[in-house]
Structures are given as structure tokens and as C-alpha cells.
Amino acid sequence: WLTGTKKGTSLYDVWKKVGALSDDTEYAKIDSFFSSEYEGKTATLWNDLEKTQRELIEISPEDKDEIEKFIKHVEYSKQCLFPAEKPMDMMGVMDYIKMSVSMKDMPKVMKEYGKISLEEYGKRFKSPLLQRLMTDYLPKEYTAYSFLVSYATMADGNGMIPMGASLQLSLRMEKKFKELGGKIFYNKPANAINLDGKVANSVSFADGSSVSADYIIPTVDTHVLFNKLIPSSYMPKELADAYKDENAYPTTSGFQVAYAVDVKFDLGETTFAEIEPLKIGERVFNRMYVKAYGYDDVFVKDGKMVIQTCISQTDVDYKYWKSLSKDEYDRVKKELTDEVTKRIEASHPELAGEMELLDTWTPLTYERYCGAYHGGYMSFVTTPGAKQIRLKGKLDGIDNIYLAGQWTNSPGGLPVAVASGKFAIQRILKEEKRSIKI
To answer: Are 143 and 116 in contact (CB under 8 A)?
Structure first.
């Protein structure tokens, strides 16, 4: 799902500006966030909060007070909108007053859920099913408020799935960029940003060519930026400290498997289930989800749709995969894929013998394709007590490099990435003493 699909929000305006969305974009007709199963019962977080509250209380009357508090604070969390009009370091007093008014109830959410992990939060519920419902979706290390904000985004219509999926969205952005005169050079890895004193004057590429520039906006993973393209001595201290403390600033990735199955199977959209314990490296997992993509024709062909599962991985798991030789990696990936298949068939007997394996990938896949630090598909996880990463967007010691990308602001993701691109341009405009209203 994509954050920023609600018309009238500043983030929606940015998505529209870059061509990703338009007023006539169609979205998948999905009416829930996800479901969790345990011991024959199912709990669902519907986009309709009243329906969710009613059903959860029916499942666990003894958790009524905690359920009502949860729903009330999810409603408050709808106010937590990413401020995409301008970077926070450019905001004035009136901007902060306006933001405080629009998010007036968020302090209540932070007070109640901002200092505990999801693992701790789940223990507030007496029902084993609701304990799992609250901890299935995000890694247990996440701060609890992150989960409420995620659910609120879906419930508010601000986290929908554009039809055509990420490829079509990317192609729309590419088309808009080219229409504006932009040029894209594919299959052209950058090797270095060349510095002359305090000025970055060019970028060198793997094919031996180089391009000069007045301004350079790196959008790559910051681990690549500061360990390959420019010296690590330019890395902001708060970022360097985060890389050194994996407990406070973990990354999250996934061991993922995709299949093709007949569209006749009604699997819901995203459903978590208990599984026979599955060991990956040093950790054991007993929950897993199946996500069905039958809602979009791009995932349906010849009467079959894509389904996928993801087992959350973190830094320790990345290190396990990285420690394997090529032969060991291929063998372990194959063995685990077979084990995942067995567990899906156990939780969905109707799929036994009906699944065609499409692909399997690991944190190393994200690293190989994207240069992603520890295979993270977002930036650092927001954990209780850890200071949120918020880079100022300009590097000390280099006059004309402006940072963009998801690692500029935790927890990252597409909203941070697209807004940071706008912010980089606004910082350049300010430097040139031009209007930042774009």
C-alpha cells in the first residue's frame, strides 16, 4: 500500500506533482488492513473502525477496555500526516502552529504508545488471538505507535494500493520526468562523486564516463553514499551513531516466497497464521502470512493469481545469509522454500499440490539489486527510546550536495523518499534566493 493517496493532503499533492498519482487513479478495492488466525478463530482490522471494535469485543469481551482504547487512539492517529509542504528546517512559527492544531491529538497517542514496543503492547491483551493480531504485522521491536499510525493510514483512505502496482506507478513517474526534459541513464552504476575542495563537481560511472553538475542529489542508500561515492568522514554523526547501534536502530527485510495459484481460491488479502516452528539461521518463527494479489489484473494470468509470504528478517538474519557460501546459500534457500510451501499447505489445505513456485528472495536480494543496507527495504526501525533519524538534507563540508531518499528520515519508505526529493529542490531554490513554493 502507498501512503499519501488521500486527496487534500500535502503528500498526495507531491505524488500528483511527480506523476505517480492523478485524480482519476484507480485503487484496489480492499476493505481491511489484515487478518490474524489462531486456534480456529480469525480477527480482522477493518478499514471501518466501528466494525473492528465490535468484532474484537465479540472475540474477547475481557479485553473490551483495551480494545476501545486502541480504536480511539487509532482514530487520533489519522491526524499523523507526513508534512510534505516544506522541510521542517524551513518551517516558521505559523507552520508549526498550523501543524500542532492539525495533529492536536497525536500527543495522546505518543504518551500511551510511544515508549513501548509492539512486543510489550501485545501483552496488554488477555486474548491469545488479539495478542497475535497486535504483533503480527510489524517486527516486535517497533514502537507501538507505528502500528497504530499504519492502521490509521489505511482506515483513513490514505494508504490505498494503486492499480497496476509499483511498476506502473514507476513508469508514470518516468514519463513525467522525461516530459519535463529529464534524462535517465539505466545500467550505469555510479562509482564516485568527485570533490574539489568543498565542491562536488562531477559523478564518475562504472563505464568510465563522467557527468559534471552544478548540484548533485544522491538518492541512494546512505550506506552506499558514504562508503563508496564519497568518504565516510562526511557522514552526519546521528547517522553514523545509528549504524553503530543495531539494537536501537535495527533494519528490517524479509525472506519471501511467491507462487501462482488458481484464482478460484478465496484466501482473503493478507492473513497471518500459526505455523510449525521454522528455523532460519539463529531465529525460530511460528507465524507467517499469505497475501493474495487477485485484486489486480497485473497479478493474474491464465486464470492464476500471485500469492506471497514474507518472514520478517533483521540484522542478525542478514548476517546469517551473508555468512553462507554460494552453494550453501542456494541449498538453504531451496530447503527453506520447501518448508514454507509445506506450512502454507498446512494452513491452507485447499492449496496442497496447487502452488506453482515463482520466486524466492532474501535480504541479500535487496542488497544486490538496490545496494540496500542489510537488505532493508525501509530505513531504520523506530524503536522505543531511540531518537528518530532526521537528516538536515545538506552535508557539512560540501556546498552543493543535497540529500534525498528514504534514509533521510526514519522509518523511511516511499513517502519519505518522494518528499525528500521535493525538499532537496526547495533547499537549492533557497540557496539561489528563489521561491520555494513548488
So the answer is: yes
Q: Is the peptide bond before 411 cis (omega within 30 degrees of 0)?
A: yes
Mean pLDDT of the chain: 94
| Contact (Cβ atoms closer than 8 angstroms) between residue 222 and residue 235 | yes
3 state SS of 271: strand
C-alpha distances in Å from residue 384, one per residue of 81, 158, 171, 257, 345: 20, 25, 38, 31, 37
CATH architecture of the domain with residue range 185-245+379-431: 3-Layer(bba) Sandwich (3.50)
The residues spanned by each domain of the chain are: 31-155, 185-245+379-431, 253-375
The maximal CA–CA distance of the chain, rounded, in angstroms, is: 68
- Grade residue 373 by pLDDT with cuts at 50, 70 and 90: very high
Residue at 153: amino acid letter: T
- Residues 255, 310 contacting (CB under 8 angstroms): yes
In which residue are the cell numbers 499447505 written? 345
Burial class (CB in 10 A: 0-12, 13-18, 19+), 163: middle
Cell numbers found for residue 416: 519519505
Query: How far is 72 from 69, CA to CA, in rounded Å?
Result: 5
Region 340-361 average pLDDT: 95
Instruction: At 430, list the grid cell.
Output: 533557497
The pLDDT value recorded for residue 193 is 98
Is residue 329 within 8 A of residue 364, CB to CB? The reply is yes
Q: In 139-206, which ranges are E strands?
A: 190-196, 199-205
End-to-end CA distance of the chain: 26
Q: What CA–CA distance (Å, rounded) separates 148 from 77?
A: 7
Residue with cell 486464470: 303
Banded pLDDT at 329 (limits 50, 70, 90):
very high
φ/ψ of residue 126, rounded to 5: -85, -30
Distance, in Å, from the CA atom of 232 to the CA atom of 139, rounded to the nearest integer, reads 30
- Supply angle C-alpha 116, 121, 125, rounded to 5: 160
Summarised one tens digit per residue, pLDDT across range 31-46 is 999 999 999 999 999 9
Tell me how far CA of residue 331 lies from CA of 259, 324, 325, 328, 340, in angstroms: 19, 10, 10, 5, 14
Place of cell 489484473: 297
DSSP H helices in 18-92: 49-59, 64-77
DSSP for residue 116 = S
Cell of 152: 490509521
Amino acid, single-letter form, for residue 428: I
What number of CA atoms fall less than 13 Å from residue 35's CA on the CB side?
A: 19
